[in-house]
Amino acid sequence: MIRPLALLLTLTVGTAALAQSMPQLTRDNGAPIGENRNSRTAGENGGVLLEDTTLIEKLARFDRERVPERVVHARGTGAAGSFTATADLGKFTRASLFKAGKTTPVFVRFSTVIHPNGSPENLRDPRGFAVKFYTDQGNWDLVGNNLPIFFIRDAIQFPDMIHSLKPSPITNKQDPNRFFDFFSATPEAVNMLAHVYSNLGTPASYRTMDGNGVHAFKLVDADGNVTFAKFRWISKQGVKNLNGAQANAAHFNYLTDDLYGAIAAKDFPKWDLMVQTLTPEQVAALPYNGFDDTKEWLGVPFTKVGTLTLDKVPDNFFESTEQSAFAPSNMVPGIEASPDRMLQGRLFSYADTQRYRVGANALSLPINAPRVKVVNNNQDGALASSERSANVNYFPSVVAPKATPDRYRASTATLSGVVDARPISKTDVFTQAGVFIRGLSAADKADLITNLSGDLGQVRDDRTRTIIVSYFYQADADLGTKLAGTVRVAMPEVARAVREYAAANPAQVASN
Question: Which residues form the signal peptide (predicted)?
Answer without folding.
Answer: 1-19
